[in-house]
Amino acid sequence: MKVKVKKSPIVISTVNELVRVCPERIVYISSDGNYSTMVLHDKTEQVFSFNLSHFQQIIEKQMKEEAALFIRIGKSLIINREYIYKINISRQLLVLADMKIEHTFALSASKEALRQLKQLLENEIEA
Amino acid sequence: MIRNEEDEIQVLGAPLRERENDKSLPQRKPWGNGKSVRFGIIVLCVMLLLGGLAWFVCDREESEVEEEIQEIEQPAVIPVDPLSSSVASVVFSVDSINDVKIRIYALNGLSAGLSFDLPDKGDTTVLLAVQAADIRRDNGGIVGDFVLRGERLARGKRKSGYCALLDGQVLLGVATDDEAMERCIRQKGDFFRQYPLVINGEIQENRLKGKALRRALARQGETLCFVESCNRESVYDFAEALADFGFSEALYLVGGNSYGWWRESNNAVHEFGQPITGASYPNLNYIVFRSSGILSE
């Protein structure tokens, strides 16, 4: 499944600030309860004081069907599928990387979620 | 079968019905495998058997009384959402839970920062100023890590709770590592430590003894509130009241007679506590909520 990436940025506006970011720059968004941390390709972090579901709503509302660029994994993680480099189910490891970025991002998720993610990507090759 | 949200993945943007029909998405068997079905039936039978026995054993009238006792009073939800509210305000209300009477100040559309100076009451951009980190009586030093505009001014991790202030936003948490503090230093934010009262809806253990007027910063959903007890309470009773009221996170603030004030929408200023001269305690510090992003040095 090749997702057409939206050219215009996602706009996240809160009481005190407004953040504009191109979707392809977002590597992942993690959640710690009521806070969401958006991590960009250059390791820049931006913290928002709302939960991941609210962040998901912003993405879906602004990107419409192009929001499929992002995959929610469990309760506390949204990843950009374009950055998926490696899934290791037994080690519960998800590595996000890309030739455009210098760093790799090693994340942890449940085995079942990683199994489903792996299957999703395999199914998309066949489709 | 228990649904574990940590085990689920979801492609964003697709409606739920579409997701369920999407062949590329891994399909979960709705009833699990044969073993789990059999196990489920056995568990159901055992539960029905036990339920029937219990019905015969217990007096029906007693059960009705018990149900009445177990009915829990649902706390009122604070109606103002700071993310949707563009009007900077402090919405005041008084409530009571578990016999603990509390004053709630919902902070809408405000930006927060730390300050060593108590703001001038004539500054109408300031809507609330309360003492933040504790100071030591013996040497007047600040207790715990303290960062002001990216500069670390005190060290210490005896209090595991923290309040990080980044771009006016308030983040409450509990951690003895320096991750949140270092983020505040990098982004020129503010940071102080206090006792955690409630984290993820769970009451946190605290060593504070005795009863006093208690104050806290607390979050309920997306609403940040300043809460104070109307009467002298133990920390546990206060924390329990906050948790039962529905606050998911709460961090203790300086209680007792500590001085502070807040501004009503008609500009009337209300004080609490007793003022202390800054000369005797130069490290006296305040968390200041303003209607603009400007914070005093």
What can you see in these coordinates?
With 127 residues, chain A is α+β, with helices and mostly antiparallel strands. Chain A has one domain: Beta Barrel (OB fold (Dihydrolipoamide Acetyltransferase, E2P)), CATH 2.40.50. Helices cover 22% and strands 36% of the residues of chain A. Chain A has two helices and ten strands; from the N terminus they run βββββαβββββα. Chain A has helices spanning 52-63, 111-126, and strands spanning 10-13, 18-21, 26-32, 35-40, 45-48, 70-73, 77-80, 84-88, 93-96, 105-108. In chain A, the strands form three sheets. In chain A, strands 5-4-3-7-6 form a five-stranded antiparallel beta sheet, with helices on both faces. A three-stranded antiparallel beta sheet of chain A has the order 8-9-10, covered by helices on one side. In chain A, a hairpin with a 4-residue loop joins β8 (84-88) and β9 (93-96). The N and C termini of chain A lie close together (8 Å). The mean pLDDT of chain A is 87. With 297 residues, chain B is an alpha+beta fold. Chain B folds into two domains: 1-71, no CATH class; 89-290, no CATH class. Chain B contains five helices and 20 strands. Chain B has a seven-stranded antiparallel beta sheet, covered by helices on one side. In chain B, β14 (215-220) and β15 (223-229) form a beta hairpin. The model of chain B is unreliable at 28-35, 58-84 and 293-297 (pLDDT under 50). At the A-B interface, β5, α1, β6 and α2 of A face β1 and β9 of B.
